[in-house]
Amino acid sequence: MAVIYVDFDTANGNDSDDGSTWALAKLTLQAGITAAGDGGTVYVRRTNAGTPGSDTAAAARTLTAGAVANMPQIIGCKDGTTAEPPTSADLAIEGTDTQPLYECTSGGNDITLAGSATVISMKFSGVDRIRINTLNTKWEFIGCHVAHAGFLYATTGNMVFTDCNIESTGTAAVYINLATDDLDSIQMYGCRTTFTAAPSSGMFYPSGQKSRFIFIGHDFSGLGNKILMPLHSSSGKGHASFVNCSVPATYTAISGTPTINAWCEMVNCTSDTTIGATATIRDYLRVDWYGQVEMEETVVRTGGADDGTTDGLFSYIMTPHVNKCNDGTSEAVKSPWMNVWVPGGANTLKVYTVHDNDVEGAGAINRDLYEDELWCEFYTPDVGDTAQHDHTLDPAGERFFGASTTATGTADTTSFWATYNTYKRYFTVALTQGYEGWAYARVHYAKRFSANQIAVYVDPLIEVT
Fold this sequence. Notes:
The protein is built from two helices and 32 strands. By secondary structure, it is mainly β.
């Protein structure tokens, strides 16, 4: 373990030096990584702001761990920094042209990452792909600027970006890729994506069956009217979560029907830049193999879920995909988990739903849904005081015994829903709790449609009496 200094200016850096000071700085990042060793630190600068360091040999652009088990921290410093070690004031500022560059200039332009490392305040320029191809490794980028013409690409391993500018300089439809069936992930927190040229159709290519995309607080507003997650026959196997992200005013979240291994979920993502003090970002969307669940603000139940703002009532609309669900099984569209705090003792919980026959022809339903088509799952505090939860389904079992003809749940004769009021039901569970705590519920919609799917609306408010 050592502290090593790297200067990308050939007038100052030399891989023959030991890297122990700025005056004896190494020239290339790989030489600095090798010298720092397991758990070390590499400080990088480029003294000549007009001529960033360039590596033309493929071997120089391939950053490998060699015998190093855990790669060091790599920290970019401002030009002219002489402090040893640098302080926080010496760190390069992400996105400015005075910070260190790692620039590729010849064919291929891939940076292949092995081992594990943390990279702080570095800029990667002229890159076609940044790749990780070593199992059980993680590269974490903090305050970096990553400009790439192709895409971030994880053959295996994980990449985490925090407070970074991810700049797309090409027009390829593929932007970020996870390629294998390992538990790979690309995670971005508080980052932004900027586009020199917007991709031609979409951004993500989740071809790995178990791959994960996690984006929290990410700015996608520059995407334009494109597809965020395009899917086709050779891809669509990953999981993508978007939470509190900024999106364009017009875009498509996901194209086509995902494979059975894929889903895309968006929570509190909006294009609105003028949210008022009394407003709430309430957007919700989930698309998977079985169907789609989205927040709804028109078909809502009086006295139901209400965030107390000027927007008021809301519900979830659940729509199965054609020929994807299977009556009476877990092959169903599922609502988000809903929760409510309940006191100890005796309680009754209710979850309300409605649908109507708003289509004609094949698939139209002129009746209440049956027990094998729609039901509710509850997790509630148990009757003892063991901090465990009881599992209850309503209805309890008819859905498992062939084609049911029994109406699901209980007839709701008191609620009023805007727009639809014909087929109203509620699901219920009676409790005797040994302690107060959270109760959870979600609705399963398993009706198989050959065409003309009927939407079910769920009130997210769990009523407690």
